[in-house]
Every structure is written in C-alpha cells, then in structure tokens.
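ok, trying the design again with the full structure, not the truncated one.
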C-alpha cells in the first residue's frame, strides 16, 4: 500500500508533463503568403508626402497587383512608373513586411494585422520633369490603401 501511495505523485507529474500545449483544436491555420495577400485591387485611404496630408491630390487612386506585377491608376507625381513588375520579391514570405522594387523605386510594403490595409512607404530623391511638367516630386511618401 505504501508503494502505491508513493507512486500517485509520480503518476500525476507524468500526466501533467505529457500533456501537449495543443488544446485539441487541430493544426494551426497556415500563414497566408505575402503574394497571395497582395493580389487584387487596393483603394486609397490616405497619402502623406514629407508628413503632409496630400490625399486630395490622388483622387481615384488605385493600385492593382497580379502575381509579381503592379498597375497604378491616378498616381500623379508620386509614381514615375505607373506599371511594371515587382523585383526582389519573395513570393514565399509569410510575414507582414517586405521591401520590393517597383520599377527603379525601392518600396516597403506592410500589411495591417487583419491584412485589409496595406501601407507603402518610399522616398523619391529628386523631382523629375518632362514635357514641361513635373513627372515625379521628391519626398518621403506613405500611401495607405485598403481592399
């Protein structure tokens, strides 16, 4: 009888340490790849240039992503190349942030926690002009778009 009483605490310890952290809910949901989250058309929420709100300059702005290409509508002077391919793109990235090149421009793309908001941050170092008009204006840009 004494032997059985001595084994009870040992059995309890073994039972508690053998329980897994999984509460029986099955496998966790797989993370959605960055490329999959990015695809589709995104609509403008806000724009800042050098911390100044410039949203009204981009009425009707949209950006669409298809595999590793992008296309901008009403990008104004903030998008010197309104369409092209994303380079330095990691299609296997499952994180929320990635730096890519949109044309010659390095752009940081960052998703919100719910993946419904995308923030695109980049800097245009020098204004460019063509045909007597500004094609791009220098500044630090932050575009916030939603699906």
């Amino acid at each position: 009888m004494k032997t059985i009483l001595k084994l009870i605490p040992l059995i309890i310890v073994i039972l508690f340490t053998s329980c897994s952290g999984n509460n029986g809910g099955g496998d966790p949901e797989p993370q959605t790849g960055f490329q999959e989250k990015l695809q589709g058309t995104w609509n403008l929420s806000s724009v800042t240039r050098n911390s100044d709100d410039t949203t009204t300059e981009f009425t009707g702005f949209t950006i669409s992503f298809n595999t590793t290409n992008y296309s901008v509508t009403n990008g104004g002077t903030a998008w010197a190349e309104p369409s092209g391919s994303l380079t330095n793109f990691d299609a296997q990235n499952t994180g929320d942030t990635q730096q890519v090149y949109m044309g010659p421009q390095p752009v940081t793309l960052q998703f919100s926690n719910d993946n419904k908001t995308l923030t695109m941050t980049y800097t245009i170092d020098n204004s460019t002009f063509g045909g007597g008009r500004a094609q791009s204006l220098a500044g630090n840009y932050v575009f916030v778009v939603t699906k």
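Keeping the full-length input from now on. The domain at 34-146 is CATH 2.40.128 (Lipocalin).
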